[in-house]
Write a structure and sequence with these properties.
Elements: E1 2-8, H1 16-31, E2 34-40, H2 46-57, H3 63-87, E3 92-95, E4 102-104, E5 113-116, H4 119-126, E6 130-134, E7 137-139, E8 145-147, H5 152-163, E9 168-173, E10 194-196, H6 197-205, H7 213-222, E11 226-230, E12 238-241, E13 254-270, H8 275-285, E14 293-295, E15 302-310, H9 314-328, E16 332-345, H10 355-365, E17 372-376, E18 379-385, H11 389-399
Parallel strand pairs: 1-2, 1-9, 2-6, 3-6, 9-11, 10-12
Antiparallel strand pairs: 4-5, 7-8, 11-12, 13-15, 13-16, 14-15, 16-18, 17-18
Helix pairs in contact: 1-3, 2-3, 5-7, 6-7, 8-9, 10-11
Length: 406
């Protein structure tokens, strides 16, 4: 028998009818001769509602207790999906992340999966049951509940597919696949029939909200084919795989936008070995992920060091910023919590020239100023003012004709 992991996002289980629809898909996959594991997110806006409840109590909820609270949403979903399968006459059993051996580190609200003990799932498969697993959560070595960060149910699903050696991992969502840009912002965005792990990983990390970047890391590492598709239709979606036919013939595969960013600049940093290590050690100790980093040319023995973080992490940076300045003997620290990042991604950049010029010209023609530029082998990113974010995505998408078929 084959093994299929199916993941249903919050919008795909937001109502009783949608839950029954998800249950029906799982049943059909089982009747087709597969072992079936279903990973479920919290229904609708449940997680947002729980976070709002916490904020009514305190502006800074304890991370451990916040995980205890947020994990409740998925536990509701798994029970309801299992009930729907039972009502349709099939066997099903629901489990929390901890019950299926989803062990993580102890970084609350953004934990990382350490290992999965799939014995209990295999035991239920042998009994003919469809196994329903709570996404987004696990337990640490102390059996404390942890959560994987927003979008973490994708990571649960692909990691579970790897642990079960599944034939495929199907990600059901409210869109029909992966698009050349967010179709809610760019109506002309085109659905991609397939995309490589490398391209999808870049797009996911750069704001393409359809998939969680860590889930793509698992897919690439364990070579799990990931099928992103709509929960409302049977139309084929987008396959995320190792190689796409003629992948280098397409210069740019897609464009993405990270809207909520903050820029930090430490001015007058002594230009000597070890200074950058000190700065980013302190940031890492607060479990803050740094995005783009730029150091300016040294002048008079000092330099400026700029980097970006998610807007939500800026208060913590400000809190430790004075310590940066004092310990390093820097001039001061400046912050801007109103920036965004627009990016283009494509494996074809490795073998084509002129991509940067084309992107920069499109932004210049739209009178959008570029504050920072970062690149990798397959992406170019520009930090811009947030007020111009959606316009920037549109002009870049148009500049590379990403809405054109073929």
């Amino acid at each position: 028998m084959g093994t299929v992991v199916m993941k249903f996002g919050g919008s795909s289980v937001a109502t009783a009818d949608l839950i029954r629809r998800a249950a029906g898909r799982a049943i059909r996959a089982k009747l087709a001769g597969n072992h079936v594991a279903v990973v479920v997110s919290a229904c609708g806006d449940t997680t947002d509602d729980l976070i709002e409840m916490a904020k009514e109590i305190t502006d800074r909820p304890d991370p451990r207790e916040l995980d205890q609270l947020m994990s409740v949403g998925e536990q509701i979903s798994i029970a309801l999906v299992a009930m729907a399968i039972h009502a349709a006459g099939e066997k099903a059993i629901s489990f929390t992340g901890g019950q299926v051996g989803m062990e993580t580190d102890s970084v609350h609200t953004k934990a990382r999966i350490q290992r999965i003990d799939a014995k209990r799932i295999h035991h239920e498969f042998a009994k003919g049951a469809i196994v329903i697993v709570a996404g987004f959560q696990g337990v640490d070595a102390n059996q404390d509940i942890t959560t994987l960060g927003r979008g973490g149910s994708d990571t649960t699903a692909v990691a579970l597919a790897a642990a079960l050696k599944a034939d495929t991992c199907e990600i059901y969502t409210d869109v029909e696949g992966v698009y050349t840009a967010d179709p809610r912002i760019i109506p002309t965005a085109r659905k991609l029939p397939e995309i490589s792990y490398d391209e999808m990983l870049e797009l996911a990390s750069l704001g393409a909200g359809v998939m969680h970047s860590r889930s793509i890391e698992f897919g690439k590492k364990y070579d799990i084919p990931i099928h992103v598709r709509s929960s409302l239709t049977d139309v084929p979606g987008t396959m995320i795989i190792e190689e796409v036919k003629d992948m280098e013939a397409v210069t740019v595969r897609g464009a993405a936008l990270v809207k909520e960013l903050a820029k930090v600049t430490i001015r007058g940093v002594p230009d000597k070995p070890g200074v950058a290590a000190q700065v980013f050690h302190q940031i890492a100790s607060r479990n803050i992920v740094v995005d783009d980093i730029i150091q300016n040319v040294s002048r008079d023995g000092s330099t400026d060091l700029s980097f970006t973080v998610t807007a939500g992490d800026l208060p913590a940076i400000v809190e430790i910023g004075k310590d940066f300045v004092k310990k390093l003997g820097a001039q001061d620290i400046l912050t801007d919590d109103k920036v965004s990042k627009v990016s283009v991604v494509g494996v074809g950049m490795r073998s084509h020239t002129g991509v940067a010029e084309r992107m920069f010209k499109a932004l210049a023609d739209a009178k959008i100023n570029i504050q920072m530029i970062t690149t990798s082998e397959i992406k170019i990113s520009c930090i811009i003012d947030r007020a111009s974010a959606q316009q920037a995505l549109r002009v870049v998408h148009d500049a590379f004709d990403l809405g054109r078929e073929g």
